[in-house]
Amino acid sequence: MRRTGKHEAGFTLMELIIVMTIISILAALAVPRFTAAIKSAREAVLREDLRVLRTAIDSYTMDKQKAPQSLDDLIQDGYLRSIPEDPMTKTTDSWMTDTSDAYSSVDQTEPGISDVHSGSQEVGSDNRPYSEW
To answer: Which residues in 79-94 are b (16+ Cβ under 10 Å) and which e?
Structure first.
């Protein structure tokens, strides 16, 4: 038989409001830290991708005695397996390349890629745009 009255099982409205308030406060503290951790991880991936791309460009230039004309040259000649995805723009075709017709250690006859940067205009944790990294 079911009892009615003061001792029914369940939560009161006040208990539910208190629990929801605590959950909201915890979420408000956790979300900014989570987004900062995500940004930091993406920046670490960008730094590593730039290092790999720049090393491949330098190796290609020294081996072939000319700079690559495109990032695809690095794949075709086996310096990279694939072009990494820019972690800031989430595409592989947004990399910005700098071309130079002068290399100090290589007798360059035609201009080629000398450096690579992210295509994103967002600002990093060091207050510089990712396109300047």
So the answer is: bbeebbebbbbeeeee
